[in-house]
Amino acid sequence: MSHAPQPLGAPVVRREAREKVTGSARYAVEHALPDCLYAWPVPATVPSGRVTAVRTADALALPGVHTVLTHENAPRLQEPDDATLALLQDDRVPHRGWYVALVVADSLEAARAGADAVVTEYAREPHDVLISEDHPGLYTPEKANGGYPAVRERGDFTRAFEDAGVRIDTTYRISPLHNHPMEPHATTARWTDGRLTVHDSSQGSTTVRDTLAAVFGIDTDRVTAISEHVGGGFGSKGTPRPQVVLAAMAALHTGRPVKLALPRRQMPAVVGHRAPTVHRVRIGAGDDGVITALSHEVTTHTSTVKEFVEQAAVPARTMYTSPNSRTTHRVAALDVPSPSWMRAPGEASGMYALESAMDELACALGIDPVELRVRNEPATEPDSGKPFSSRNLVACLREGARRFGWDDRDRRPATRQEGRWLLGTGVASATYPVLVGPSSACAYAAADGSYRIEVNATDIGTGARTVLAQIAASALSTAADRVRVVLGDSDLPDAPLAGGSSGTASWGWAVHKAAARLAAEIAAHSGPLPAEGLTVRADTREETGAESPYARHAFGAHFAETAVDSLTGEVRVRRLLGVYAAGRILNARTARSQFIGGMVMGIGMALTEGSTLDPVYGDFTASDLASYHVPACADVPAVEAHWIDEDDPHLNPMGSKGIGEIGIVGTAAAIGNAVRHATGARLTELPLTPDKVLPYLP
Amino acid sequence: MKPFGYLRPASVTEAVRAGASHPGARFLGGGTNLVDLMKLGVETPGLLIDVTRLPLDRTEPTADGGLRVGATVRNSDLAAHPLVRERYPVLTQALLAGASGQLRNTATTGGNLLQRTRCPYFQDVSKPCNKRVPGTGCPAREGAHRDLAVLGHSENCVATHPSDLSAALAALDATVELHGPEGERTVPVTAFHRLPEENPDQDTVIRPGELITAVTLPPAPDGSAQLYRKVRDRASYAFALVSLAAVLTVRDGRVQHAALAFGGLAHRPWRATAAEAVLRDAPATPETYARAAAAELAAARPLRDNAFKVDLARRLTVDVLTELT
């Protein structure tokens, strides 16, 4: 055991690594409870309409089937804030895949057989699942996701665009994308003496607790939600999902513990997806490349259940000089599953379009794409007029160019060939806002000199336990391995979810505050600590509630080298390099993992991942991992993540910005720009599969 | 999953007898496709007859210089077999282009031939599918069909056969050995898989109760060059958009022997006989290869979203043959 204090930033190994690789880390449905039942949901098989009958007799007659919950017998819920959780409450079918029944049985196999035996009858209504730029149902929402205004205008875009010497006007399309975390959405639920306990695979169990208390109409102190280990979330577990409510309903109805893990094939319909987006981007610039007019207009879909608008035009409000600007979102509510958060909602999609358009502008002007971005570096945030707390986009571009060997690049398109392969390189910027939420935490010093930190943070695979121990150790001037971190349980001090790249900043701020105060108390204490030790509780509501006078964002730059098979149109990434300016990096090892994870997801977005809605049946056609292609190892080449030292005093006591999402932002654009450089063809629709590339090949 | 019986027979005779006396029984090889389909409710056998312990796991040279591959030889073992690598490289390449390492370690030679289509409608029991339930219709025609057939499809079915191995076997003129209640017979691989026509529920000409016991390869054509190339949406672990198994012998600048079989284009591995007719005795040049591709693909009837496959097949033909020349 090392007793030397570990400085923040050290590459400390993830604490629970051994438990995870040896299988002793327990996930949501791996908690053995006596008398446990198993549940299997029954999805609607029509895209729109009403349930007229659910015939359960055949299912109930099967051996082992305990009960079938339907809208007629399921426990009544209070109306949830999130309408996707109003499960089995009425006969309405808002989209195919919406749950119409839940079979509960003695075994998983019996539950599944029971689900197959449930017969549901419907009064079917017409449906519409295909979005287009001229869809008659389009409207301008009040807000996009994240609370951003749907429309922002500055100056006179139309006039400035008309007057511009060089104009880019391109429409880009991104198909729906799915979250498929390795651990599906899963819950074990039990009621004991009117108290509900759930083990739930979630990104934040304080939210799960509060939501369950609200829908079941009980006090929050009668609900415990535990998310000890979580096998990935990527946003799809940021809000409580149907499985936790269904499992709790089934446990209430049967009086026995119930386990429910969503089948992989059902996930696309109920765990949220990145909505398809259509982006019209117009940029007007002078011959010097300086942007005079910028418009980013986004069209997307939401469901009839709730409004979720991918905030894809928002990054254009931050990125570049744009005295005349228009950024808008329009949405239509279709008979589709409800879209939701997926890694960097808004930035991942919006920056594909904006950074592709920037590359077009660079090509049109004959200016190096790195240089073009440097020329459009704004002095203050264009939309808010606020100064940046720190903005090192240019440093990222320059450092990335140096490491990548960008300056040796031959700018001419379609001129490098290696056998059948056309080679190209591309660059794109990345950004992600600095978000932080109020959190509480407890720091405890034991008489034996050890420490314990309690905070209901969630470690979704990011290394939160490890980093929080480093933060506490730093404030306590001790070694990280003297600090135990307890998290993932809603009975611990309340904390926000692991989402919006805000987890470490939010939890860490409270942990730092509690630990720093504890250190002060210890310093003021004379003699040995009392037998019960010392405890300090801290809350950051005040600090995090104040609006910052600064525009706070992380920035980055992605560089890609791609090879395009001139014969088949297959695109392979050869090299991908990211450089980030994200405040202080708190753990070099886990941070690199997160950056690279985001970049790999960006490769998927660029080349392989895409779903479609079946116009006849109304569901996603890519419903399993054989049809929804996440990158395989062979798709992931040399990937490098680097960062520059950024000292920003306007963030939080650790000086950190979030890093969970920026790795996916702009990655698809860098790859698309490299494909353009390789082939000379500008493709505008993701993913770049062979069928899309082929028409542009000789 | 519907409850099912499980039987591990001691001999081929016992396996075949059990298969014949239990309608709806299925022979279980590696289970990499059958078990998935059982989970989906697409296959609902009352009895699984596990043939993996039968003595069908040998790969042996035949007297005429060919190779006889037992039906339960695992894909990984077959790909690595020294005689396969030496004499039938197209077979090794095809095997290694399929699935993932874990699946290849389990999947068997016989089972691979009997893989069923990955058409999304076939795999979803909540939707119609003539292949799954005859007479219910084919939604793929109007729906999602980017990955589906451009050759040999019918009004009733536009599914593709997903096997890489089968395409290579078709190009190598391999023969399937079958053992059934009425005795043994052999069927050329090229005649083993069917076109959908009126009965898309029948993938092959296999008769009820018949078990694949082996696949026999004739000697590789003298001096032939061989290549399998697969185009897919990701670099590994994806089914073919189009693949091509090619065996080519060129003498004195002319094609002496050519055997081509496409994967991903049709309901069966598509042996390109029209192309081969053009190639035979013709000058071994890209122009000939382009004419051969055009002759074969003239019959293509692409659907709304899969015309790219025709272009891809044409490009692949010219390029692969040129590379083999």
Descriptive notes:
- The complex is a heterodimer of chains A (698) and B (325).
- Chain A is α+β, with helices and mostly antiparallel strands and 698 residues long.
- In chain A, 59% of the residues are buried.
- In chain A, α14 links the parallel β27 and β28.
- Chain A starts with 16 loop residues before the first helix and ends in a 5-residue tail after the last helix.
- Chain A is 25% helix and 25% strand.
- Chain A has a 7-stranded mixed sheet with strand order 3-5-1-15-12-13-14, with helices on both faces.
- With 325 residues, chain B is α+β, with helices and mostly antiparallel strands.
- Chain B is 30% helix and 20% strand.
- Chain B has a 5-stranded antiparallel sheet.
- Classes of the chains: A alpha+beta (698), B alpha+beta (325).
- Chains A and B meet through α3 of A and α12 of B.
Question: Please, how many helices of chain A?
Answer: 16
Helix content of chain A: 10-25%
The largest sheet of chain B is: 5 strands, antiparallel
Question: Main sheet of chain A?
Answer: 7 strands, mixed
Shape of chain B: globular
Radius of gyration of chain B: 19 Å
Pick out its properties.
heterodimer, A: 698 residues, B: 325 residues, alpha+beta, 5-stranded antiparallel β-sheet
Secondary structure layout plus pairing:
The complex is a heterodimer of chains A (698) and B (325).
Chain A: H1 17-22, E1 37-43, E2 49-55, H2 57-60, E3 65-70, E4 92-93, E5 99-105, H3 108-117, E6 119-124, E7 143-144, E8 148-149, E9 152-154, H4 157-163, E10 166-174, E11 177-178, E12 186-192, E13 195-200, H5 205-216, E14 223-226, H6 242-254, E15 258-261, H7 267-270, E16 273-274, E17 277-285, E18 291-303, E19 324-334, H8 347-365, H9 369-375, H10 393-404, E20 417-418, E21 421-433, E22 440-445, E23 451-454, H11 464-476, E24 483-486, H12 503-524, E25 534-539, H13 541-545, E26 553-565, E27 571-581, H14 588-608, E28 638-643, H15 667-679, E29 685-686, H16 690-693
Parallel strand pairs in A: 1-15, 10-29, 13-14, 18-19, 23-24, 27-28
Antiparallel strand pairs in A: 1-5, 2-4, 2-6, 3-5, 7-8, 9-19, 10-17, 11-16, 12-13, 12-15, 17-18, 20-21, 21-26, 22-23, 22-25, 26-27
Chain B: E1 5-7, H1 12-21, E2 26-28, H2 34-40, E3 47-50, E4 59-61, E5 67-70, H3 75-80, H4 82-87, H5 89-97, H6 101-106, H7 109-113, H8 164-171, E6 175-180, E7 183-188, H9 189-192, E8 211-217, E9 225-231, E10 242-251, E11 254-263, E12 270-271, H10 273-279, H11 286-297, H12 308-324
Parallel strand pairs in B: 1-3, 2-3
Antiparallel strand pairs in B: 4-5, 5-8, 6-7, 6-8, 9-10, 10-11, 11-12
Helix pairs in contact in B: 5-8, 10-11, 11-12
